Amino acid sequence: GTASLVNHLKICQKNHAHICSTQSELTYQVSEDEKEGFRLFMAKACPRFTVPSRTTMYRDIIAIYEAEKAMLRKYFIESRQTVCLTTDTWTSKRQQSYMVLTAHSIDSGWKLRKKIINFVLVDGHKGDDIGKSLEKLLIEWGIERVCTITVDNASSNDTCLAYMKRSLTNARSRYLGMRCVAHIINLVVQDGLKIMCHPRNRIRSAIKFVRASPTRLDLFKKCVQLSKVVSKGLINIDVVTRWNSTFIMLETAEKFERAFEQYALQDPNYKTELEKTGPEPKPDTPDQRGPPTQSDWVYVREFKQFLQHFYLLTNKVSGTKYVTANTFLEDIADVHFMLGEWSDHVICGDGEIFKCMATKMKTKYEKYWGDPEKMNKYIFIAAILDPRTKESHFFKDMIEDTYGSIIGKRILTSSDNEFVSLFGEYRELYGTNTPRELASQARPSANASENSLVRSRYN
Predict the structure, then answer these.
(1) Where is the segment annotated Disordered (predicted)?
(2) What mean pLDDT value characterizes the chain?
């Protein structure tokens, strides 16, 4: 019979689809499959499989993309799920503006879904341009119910959110705008790093010098052995605009303090070159030039411990496989208490630099989270829905200690009213047909919440 031949043809089609999917997932160029080495490998591994040409590969990858897009669009239209959107914009070296749009939703099985649905060119970074692009994309995807749109701190996003509030007609659009918690933490820490710029810059210059040539790096590795430093990794330079990479740089470099001291003895050009590196010192400001000093390493050890909490906090709130909104309020209070404690911390006989740093960070904190009336009410509602928090004494004490007794009581009353109103809206939408026996299979790490400063404060 011909049944075996029909099945063989189906297998061939699946193999062809698999190689296209693999090509997309591994972000290889379509020309990779035409290279002689890959074709020889496939000829040995599966002689009966014919490797497609780059033209065929490109055409089929586009076809797979369109099919997946159609399935996702059908899901949005038929399920009518409320989605949360996150968006960000970039400008390329060619001065072209790009925008990424990510949709987060909970499906009928109570599983958290995250899909990057668009990465497109936009006319510019103006609020109206971004708003019009968002409106067009939502219509294209058939998305009607939007809970929140998470944006960064750019002023143009205020205009964008105002435009989207007019565009979306659902009642909850009044709480549409959500500031990215991770982005605000980044701004807070960046302000603190400006105060600690001198030790950081000297260490960064030392790392740049060592990694400038293979000869210097080999000499540094010998110094590591001589100083008996035990570490799996090696020093790396940071990305100036990403403070978490600065934290990793300082954390790693601090382990190699003795190796840097040994290197200064081995290379006479080390100190001479570093004393020429960096800007001229301004009046009444420390000189940023020269190799790292003993006091620099002391500051780095203290500052590293301080940054570590922000580093772990950023990783927690940036999670995509579990819900993070229920701990936002606790995270905000955590930052508040930590900055307050750091302001009173004195170390090394020179606590002024740390007090100044904490004060500057607190000013940035107050700009975004100092006034709860300007914060999205979903932050408080999500905390109430967390079974570990609810409207407990912990919840009430945390708010009153963070914002004061008078403002705290006002927040508690307004949050309770908004929660009742939101519950009424969902009851009208879904009635009693929502499956109650299902629970989300993706959960955040328990340690992330249990180890917070706020919970330890009230335990």
Answers:
(1) 272-292, 438-459
(2) 81
pLDDT in tens, 347-393: 444 567 778 888 889 999 999 899 998 898 999 999 999 888 888 88
* Residue 291 token pair: 């190799």
The total of other beta-carbon atoms located within 10 Å of residue 89's CB is 20
> What's the pLDDT at 6?
57
Q: Tokens 């009424």: give the residue.
A: 424
Q: How far lies 256's CA from each of 83, 139, 227, 393, 395, in Å?
A: 47, 55, 9, 47, 44
Q: Which domains does the chain have, with CATH numbers?
A: 3-70 (no CATH), 81-179 (3.30.420), 192-302 (no CATH), 319-459 (no CATH)
> What is the average per-residue pLDDT within 243-271?
90
Band (439; pLDDT cuts 50, 70, 90): very low
Residue 376's contacts (CB-CB under 8 Å, 6 or more residues apart) are: 148, 175, 177, 178, 179
The answer to whether the CB of 292 falls within 8 A of the CB of 260 is yes
pLDDT at 442: 46
Is residue 117 within 8 A of residue 99, CB to CB? The reply is no
β-strands 177-179, 83-91: how paired?
unpaired
pLDDT in tens, 121-150: 888 778 888 888 999 999 999 888 888 898
